[in-house]
Amino acid sequence: MQLRKLQTAMLESIFHPSQGEVKPQHYISETAVFSAEQQLDIYRGSIISGISGALDNTYPVCRQLTGGDFFDAMAHEYIVNTPSLHPDLNIYGRTLAEFIDNFEPANELPYLSDIARLEWLLAEVFSAADERLGNLDELAYLSEQDLQKVIFQLPLASRLLQSDFPVEAIWSMHQGADINHDEEINLDQGGVKLIVWRDGLDMKVEILDEHQWSFLVHIQQQHNFSSICESMINDFPGVDMGHELARVIQAGWVSFFRSA
Amino acid sequence: MSTRLQKNGDESFIQGVGLGLRTPHYHFIESTRPDVAWFEVLIDNYMQPGGSPLYHLERIARDYALTFHGVGMSLGSADPLNMDYLGILKQRINEFKPAWVSDHLCWSSVAGCHGHELLPLPYTEEAVALVIEKIRQVQDYLGQRILIENVSSYLTYTDSQMPEWEFLNIIACEADCDILLDINNIYVSSVNHNLDAELYLQSVPVDRVREMHLAGYEDAGTHLLDTHSRPVYDPVWDLYRKALRLFGTVPTLIEWDNDIPEFDILVAEADKARSCMRDLKNAVA
Ligand SMILES: [Fe+2]
User: Fold this and answer.
1) Which of A208, B116, B117, B279 has minimal Cβ neighbours within 10 Å of its Cβ?
2) Which chain A residues are Cβ-neighbours of B53 within 8 angstroms?
3) Digit-coded pLDDT (tens) for B85-96
4) What is the largest CA-CA distance in chain B?
């Protein structure tokens, strides 16, 4: 059998056992101990559990929330429907949140997909590029006119997330060694706006107020400072933009600026 | 201890028994700087651009010689090489200057889909030609020889026309690459397929073996599984001693990837391997 045909049939059989025209007995020899299918089973087991292990690493809180058996079953469904397209297993699972949104058995946990979104962003930020110290010191030397034209940058190791659920509270309850599984999640706390970022090597999830969120979203959209001011003064009459700028810089949520 | 600059890229620093570098041991290694001959880096875990993985690798690389070990080349795949992957690998080679780079004689992806498993190849002329071509391309691109490692296997293809050792032999000689001989994998495959492990060893070209691997398997009753989750077992030590007699005191690495123990357990395994090397030297003397 041609190598490409064999390899394609084998991966197909591993992820979709009942599908595919070329059956394992066409390319695997039966032994005294194992049928062709049983030999392939060994690989199916190790492949699924290997990829599943990567999801466990990336989504530990989702796993705690659903319980291990539920998570494993869900991961299995996800894996057979979502081929890994990159040799780096560490970046598998980006679309799990969307999968959960359409995975009926998970409907009882309406916040689960947003927890998955949060955990994915944490994984991205964890190994995002390091940054040299920014040029923010130079802001002080700009004229008021030049400051208006400035376009700020969020740190490379940062992501913004908005949820209708108190995902930061839920996530925090599942950090550390002594996790209290009995603690009730109070969904009445309502939604949150968050920044997930890395401070040196420390992973941080912090809640943003409306002003901070609005400011950072504008930065993400690459608006210059003048249009950010205009838009925010319109949305939040009386807002002190000098103060807001100082706050986001002090927090470490702006890394660079460039003059447009 | 010499500085990393002196060790950069110099394979003469890779001697004796090294250990596989694993995340749970970063802190211990950085804070106590244990006496370890070298560390082998699972380079696929350092492909992302920043953060903790590269931070720790940089710190450890200051004090220890490194070798790179990959699982992502998929040298036996019918697909073309993944140049994005090789590009990052090359970048890491430039940054860390490992003494050498190894990957496996296997396939792990096809049609762009990855199984993230070291799947064996059918031992056919077609596979031989394909892998030789791929290894040549990789070596040309990286500007250096690579090592290819024999994998454990749990299945036999109907198409195979030669024993595994012959497959390994032809490919290594024709592609002009070196061999990382995994003694545990030879043992596991020899039990699973009822093969003569010693004949395997005797068939490997002596001058191409630059490194050996030792690890622990799990006995699944009907077959052995190469899990890297246990100490090295006695029959593998026996086979290792025979390999030392054939290949000399080739640099040897202890691999442990699942249920990773305290660092001193790895050190004890390395001590055992070292004493096998010593025994051989004494016997020769
Ligand atoms: Fe190995």
Assistant:
1) B279
2) 127
3) 999 999 999 999
4) 54
